[in-house]
């Protein structure tokens, strides 16, 4: 450990919290101490070789930086408490993302916006985030007039219980038995595709996940009037979100130009030789911090339009890696 900030990881017992702890070690984050915090249910357990402390009884004045991955209600209540105690919060929930006073940061995309924080910095939605590192270079080079997202989201995005449900359902179906009734999702997820991620609010035909993608894309790219729509589906994949993304650029661009551009983009790897069976897949993106992009091709149905396939690890770049990168940015810039 160094003389760097004292770090708290809130929600340390969850899938993203555990990944944050791993990444802080792997990336040699310059912390003077790292303390996992969670609810009383998890207090006393071991995560990453550290004992989890009870959030409710923790002395918040010990911390300079808190990385949150404990859900919106916890963030709503506890993030201001950490800020009032003198810490800066990087929050992974949806609670603060659209607050006009809270920067929504993907370091490769809009890192400079972090300077405007007032104690809380928000981490974008996993599906939004992996697309932003691909779309920002295109926006800068050719402009963006419209974006259409179609997502194929892994169950790890819902948490450990969802992974357990997929495993148990798949085991039952493969054994010729009837799986137990779905508990985490509205329908069986094994061998199925559910065109619903999160919930529907009254009077809205879009899910809350789809609304997040639309609003967050506009905020991160600084394009409040961008035409953008989304359809989000849950698929029986353990980890790694896949996205079909259709864009309309302001200036004409060829697939070769996009491949060349994205080959130089930070955090992006071009995987694009479809005739040889080379394209991004969830199993290849899982465990990686980079976002993979391929199947780049012209959309012959519309002017200045192209299609692409984007894959990212939703627990890493889609959540934990970005949170740690934001923390690194805060330290690097003395914020």
Word description of this protein:
The structure is a single chain. With 335 residues, the protein is an alpha/beta fold. The protein has two domains: 6-123 and 319-332, 3-Layer(aba) Sandwich (Rossmann fold), CATH 3.40.50.720; 128-313, Dihydrodipicolinate Reductase, domain 2 (2-Layer Sandwich), CATH 3.30.360.10. It has nine helices and 14 strands. It has helices at 15-26, 72-84, 107-110, 126-142, 160-174, 208-221, 255-263, 282-285, 316-332, and strands at residues 6-10, 33-38, 46-47, 50-51, 53-54, 65-68, 88-91, 120-122, 144-153, 227-234, 241-249, 268-270, 291-298, 305-312. The strands form three sheets. A six-stranded parallel sheet has the order 5-2-1-6-7-8, sandwiched between helices. Strands 10-9-11-14-13-12 form a six-stranded mixed sheet. The protein has a two-stranded antiparallel ribbon with strand order 3-4. Strand 13 and strand 14 form a beta hairpin. Helix 4 (126-142) crosses helix 9 (316-332). The protein is globular and about 60 Å long. The two termini are 20 Å apart.
List the helices and strands and how they pair.
Elements (H helix, E strand, L loop, with lengths): L5 E5 L4 H12 L6 E6 L7 E2 L2 E2 L1 E2 L10 E4 L3 H13 L3 E4 L15 H4 L9 E3 L3 H17 L1 E10 L6 H15 L33 H14 L5 E8 L6 E9 L5 H9 L4 E3 L11 H4 L5 E8 L6 E8 L3 H17 L3
Parallel strand pairs: 1-2, 1-6, 2-5, 6-7, 7-8, 9-10, 12-13
Antiparallel strand pairs: 3-4, 9-11, 11-14, 13-14
Helix pairs in contact: 1-9, 4-6, 4-9
């Amino acid at each position: 450990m160094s003389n760097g900030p004292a770090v708290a990881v809130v929600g340390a017992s969850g899938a993203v919290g555990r990944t944050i702890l791993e990444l802080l070690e792997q990336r040699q984050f310059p912390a003077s101490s790292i303390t996992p915090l969670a609810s009383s249910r998890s207090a006393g357990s071991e995560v990453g070789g550290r004992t989890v402390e009870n959030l409710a009884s923790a002395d918040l004045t010990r911390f300079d930086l808190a990385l949150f991955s404990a859900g919106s209600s916890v963030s709503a209540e506890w993030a201001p408490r950490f800020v009032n105690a003198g810490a800066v919060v990087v929050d992974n929930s949806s609670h603060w993302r659209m607050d006009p006073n809270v920067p929504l940061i993907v370091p490769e995309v809009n890192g400079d916006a972090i300077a405007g924080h007032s104690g809380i910095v928000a981490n974008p939605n996993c599906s939004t985030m992996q697309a932003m590192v691909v779309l920002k270079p295109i926006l800068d080079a050719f402009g963006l007039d419209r974006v259409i997202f179609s997502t194929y989201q892994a169950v790890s995005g819902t948490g450990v219980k969802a992974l357990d449900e997929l495993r148990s359902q798949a085991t039952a179906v493969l054994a010729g038995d009837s799986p137990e009734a779905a508990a985490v999702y509205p329908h069986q997820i094994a061998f199925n595709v559910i065109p619903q991620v999160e919930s529907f609010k009254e009077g809205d035909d879009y899910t809350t996940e789809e609304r997040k993608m639309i609003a967050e894309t506009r905020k991160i790219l600084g394009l409040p009037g961008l035409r953008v729509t989304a359809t989000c589906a849950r698929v029986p994949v353990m980890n790694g979100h896949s996205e079909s993304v259709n864009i309309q650029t302001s200036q004409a661009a060829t697939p070769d130009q996009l491949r060349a551009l994205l080959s130089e983009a930070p955090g992006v790897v071009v995987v694009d030789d479809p005739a040889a069976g080379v394209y991004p897949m969830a199993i290849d993106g899982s465990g990686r911090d980079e976002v993979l992009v391929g199947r780049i091709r012209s959309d012959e149905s519309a002017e200045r339009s192209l299609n692409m396939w984007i894959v990212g690890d939703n627990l890493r770049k889609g959540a934990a890696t970005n949170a740690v990168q934001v923390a690194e940015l805060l330290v690097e810039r003395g914020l």
